[in-house]
Amino acid sequence: MGKGWKNPIKVANAQKKGAVFTKLAREIQVAAKMGGPDPVMNSRLRLAIDVAKKQQCPNDTIDRAIKKGAGLLDDGSIIEELMYEGYGPHGIGVLVECQTDNRNRTVPEIRTIFKSHEGNMGENGSVAWMFERVALLEGHKDGDFDPEEEAIEAGANEVEKSEDGYSFYGDMENMENIRKALLARGWQITTAEPSYKAKNITELTEEQMKDVVEFLNEMDEHDDTHRVHATIK
Fold first, then answer.
1. Number of separate domains in the chain
2. Of 95, 159, 203, 215, which alpha carbon lies 20 to 30 A from 180's?
3. What CATH number does residue 53 fall under?
4. Please, which contacts does 155-158 make with residues 24 or more away whose CB atoms are closer than 8 Å?
5. Helix (H, G, I), strand (E, B) or coil at 126
């Protein structure tokens, strides 16, 4: 093998990790911009830093993102939070939260993903009515417990089982109170942020769901995508 040969698997893995670090840094930057650079006083920033560290994001990347968000480091780039909405395959409603430093790049790329899966990106408000604005808290807890009881005691309206634990939904104005209550009850909180929850679920067959999952995965993996919400379970 010549010196110029590179293992394609290792290169792909490194590129994927780099993309993850970019997304983590953007969330840290936005959090610092919105609530200040002190994680003690900024719960969104504190959670973003915790997630980044668990993903082994370099400390230099974290520190730089905090400084950029707080306006202490000006490299000419500004991260914007944008929302796109539309219909995906088989008529599902979709909201796509993006964090980008170039909306002129992001808009056509998001639109292309919709179109390539027989969907279409709509105007503001065309799909948002299908969702309600909620506080989302995700976490896990050791031992035996009744999740419904945990939700009631913490002041959350709903709770669902997720891949890594449980998702609690509550009123936006109660997010911090719910977070503190869950922490007091022994929960490890990994997410506490404004989110969206579908009001009605689009009924799909197993084959249709495969199309939808493929579409949502591609949308989620886009470099500028922060969160994707859809009218499916």
1. 2
2. 95
3. 1.10.10.200
4. 155/181, 158/197
5. coil
Q: Would you tell me how many other CB atoms lie within 10 Å of the CB of residue 99? A: 21
pTM of this structure: 0.79
Determine contact, residues 47/189, Cβ cutoff 8 Å.
Answer: yes
Angle between helices 43-54 and 59-69 (to 10 degrees): 160
Segment 116-167, tens digit of pLDDT? 999 999 999 999 999 999 999 999 999 999 999 999 999 999 999 988 899 9
The domain boundary, picked from 69, 90, 115, lies at: 69
Does some domain include residue 74?
A: no
Q: Provide the token pair at 145.
A: 């417990």
Same domain, 52 and 103: no
As a whole number of angstroms, the distance between CA 172 and CA 36 comes to: 20
- Where a domain ends, among 46, 69, 92? 69
The pLDDT score that the predictor gives to residue 17 is 66
Structural contact between residues 121 and 114, judged by C-beta atoms closer than 8 angstroms? yes
Low-confidence ranges of the chain (pLDDT < 50): 1-14
Which pLDDT score is estimated for 19?
Answer: 81
Within this chain, do residues 196 and 223 fall inside the same structural domain, yes or no? yes
pLDDT at 16: 63
Question: Cα(142)–Cα(64) distance, rounded to whole angstroms?
Answer: 35
Alpha-carbon distance of 75 to 4, in angstroms, equals 33
Residue 228's region, left for phi above 0, alpha for psi from -120 to 50, else beta, is: beta
pLDDT of the residue at 45: 93
- For the chain, counts of helices (H) and of strands (E): 7, 8
